[in-house]
Amino acid sequence: MARAPDNIKSINGSKEPLKVAVRITDLWFVGTPNRFEQAEMVIIDSHGDTIHVVCKQDQLKSWKADLIENCTYVMHNFKVMKNDDQFRICDHQYKLVFTRVTVLRKSNLEDLPFKKYKFADFTNIIVGLFELKLLVGKFNYNLFN
């Protein structure tokens, strides 16, 4: 019998193999096409928890056609890394990175939410109780200017 998928909330950097059932809620590409390009995405599980995922240039050629925003997948054999970038996309302590053995299988998982918003309490914002290095909202940027 196949094992149940792990929750994003339970990802803690341990070495155990993980399998997650997710929806890609946001997908974007960073870099210049045909030179350096990587895919970045935010995925969500059935509990509404999100995590940042990176598909670097060496893996992107294999996966670019299969990565579709709002589609659902079962994913396993990925690397779990500390999410300690200067700015974080999600508030999860870890991020997932595609490897040569990553499996991403499209699945019809209609119970997965499209997006789940987690609004900060306005009083917490006023008194400064929020994560400074967490990106919020939509923004445009050009890395090559």
TrEMBL record:
<dbReference type="InterPro" id="IPR012340">
    <property type="entry name" value="NA-bd_OB-fold"/>
</dbReference>
<dbReference type="InterPro" id="IPR003871">
    <property type="entry name" value="RFA1B/D_OB_1st"/>
</dbReference>
<protein>
    <recommendedName>
        <fullName>Replication protein A 70 kDa DNA-binding subunit B/D first OB fold domain-containing protein</fullName>
    </recommendedName>
</protein>
<dbReference type="Pfam" id="PF02721">
    <property type="entry name" value="DUF223"/>
</dbReference>
<feature type="domain" description="Replication protein A 70 kDa DNA-binding subunit B/D first OB fold">
    <location>
        <begin position="7"/>
        <end position="107"/>
    </location>
</feature>
